[in-house]
Amino acid sequence: MTDLPAANPGFLLTRCFFLWLCWLLLIPVAPAGSVELPRESNVPGGVAVIELPAADGEQQPEAWYRDRRVMVLNNANRWYAIVGIPLNAKPGKHTLTVKSSTTKRIHFTVTEKKYREQHLTIKNKRMVNPDADDLKRIRKEKKEIIAAFAHWRDTRQIDTSFILPVDGPLSSPFGLRRFFNQQPRKPHSGLDIAAPEGTPVRAPASGVVIATGNYFFNGNTIFIDHGQGLITMYCHMNRINVKKDDLLEEGQIIGEVGMTGRVTGAHLHWSVSLNNTRVDPELFLSVSK
Q1: Given 79, 94, 223, 287, which residue has the most CB atoms within 10 angstroms?
Q2: Residues of the chain with CATH 2.60.40.1590
Q3: Is the pLDDT of residue 9 over 60?
C-alpha cells in the first residue's frame, strides 16, 4: 500500500481561509445606516414614507410637513421622510418641504379612510363631564402632554420596528370615533391592549424616558422618546418602574397594566406619535421580530 504524502499545514490553512472568505461573501449585508421602515399607509392617522431627492454622499436632508419637522431615515443608501398624517387630514394632495443643498417641495396623496364608531358607558360621570376643579387640572396636564409629544431629539440611531408593549388581545383599534355616555368625543388616538392588572409592560424599542405622571384621563403615564419626533405613550398603568431620563432597551419592563384614569376595564392604552401627530401603532409592529 502506497503511503499518502503528509498534508501541508500551510496549504490547508490557506484553503480553509479561502472557503471561509467565499462563505462570508454569500451573506447579504445591509448598507451602513440602513433601518427597517414602518409600513406605509397614506390615510388620515397613517404614515407616508417618501423617498427624498438627494445626491450621492449628500448629508441627511431636513423635511417639514405642516410646519413641523419630520423624521428622515436612511434605508439602502436612500433618504426617506417618515411623515405622520393627522386624523383630521383631508383626502387629496399634501406637500412636504425638503431642505438639503436646495429647497424642494414634494407632493403626496392622502386617501380617505372611514373609522368605525365605538360607544362606551363610563360610570364615573366626572370622567365624561369634569367639574371646575377637574378642568383646571386637565388644562395644566394638557400643557405637559403637549410638550412631551412635541419633543425632538436629533439622532440617526432609531429603531422603528416595534414589539408589542404588552401581551394581550387588541381590544380597541386606533382611530375609533368614540362616544362616552352617548356624547361624541375625539377619535381614539392609540391602540388598547387588554390584559389583567399587574401584567408587565415593556418598551417596544430602545429610547429615553422624557416624562412620567398621573393624569386625569390617562392615569399613570409614561412617555418614551425614540428619536426624531417618534414618541410613544403608555396610559392607565398601575405601576411605573422608570423615571425621567432613564435609557431603555427593547423589551425592558417599564411598569404594569392597571385601571387608572378613564377606563372601563384593565388595559394598556398605547399611542405612537410622529411629528407631534398621533398615528396607528400597528404600522410600527415588526413582522420580523
Answers
A1: 223
A2: 47-110
A3: no
